[in-house]
Amino acid sequence: MSTPKRILVVEDEADLADLVSYNLRRAGYDVEVARDGAAALRAGSDNPPDLVILDLMLPKVSGLDVARELRTNPKTAGVPVIMVTAKAADADQIAGFRFGADDYVTKPFSMTVLLARVEALLRRARGAGSAGGGGGETGDGGGNGADVLSIRDLRLDLGTHEVRVGGEPVKTTLTEFRLLAALVRGRNKVLSREDLMYTAMGPDVVVSSRTIDVHMAAIRKKLGVSGAMIRTVRGVGYLLDERATADRAEAADL
Predict the structure, then answer these.
(1) Per-domain boundaries in the chain
(2) DSSP assigned state of 81
(3) Would you call the peptide bond into 49 cis, given omega within 30 degrees of 0 as the criterion?
(4) Less packed terminus of the chain by CB within 10 Å, N or C?
């Protein structure tokens, strides 16, 4: 019998925290509740969960700051985060994704929707190493085995979800990792925002196209010089051009 997935619910409204926890436990999850941001950071560091459901409006430490700290802490850097908030504007959602959210649910929400998002995100986390098919595609010099994607000095380990540039580790969220893997698999081909959204987030998640742009900007920044390989095709999507240099990529964004 498999061990239940552990979910940390960070919510200061007692009634809502109890409702979410009750339904998660009914669905077979192990649940811990934190009522403020400081408690959430302690819980995440002491015993990292499999997933975090995070409210944004929290006492002591804001939800955005909690998300940023979770991404900074090596223990929790790869833990999927679903932000739950009453702020539904695109700008608020973009801010959430910029701070490391993998999904975003606005209040009020149905418990069925939240449970579906939890299941989808955990499924993505389990399948990140095999999603999208394909085997050991390699770039210059190749990777080592079916669990590695590489191109120039960029290397993605699908088994451990690790990204390295020039041998140095680069921290990414689950969504960023899946987007980058899709680009590497589709090297030198234009991928639409819709295709990237489906590959990285699955059919159960609906976000604006702008969200993909935010993730791509974050990925480029994290990859440093190698980020120049990611080109924007205006009005369509993105392309990973293995021949690009920083100057060429900037000039060739269409």
Answers:
(1) 6-127, 148-252
(2) E
(3) no
(4) N
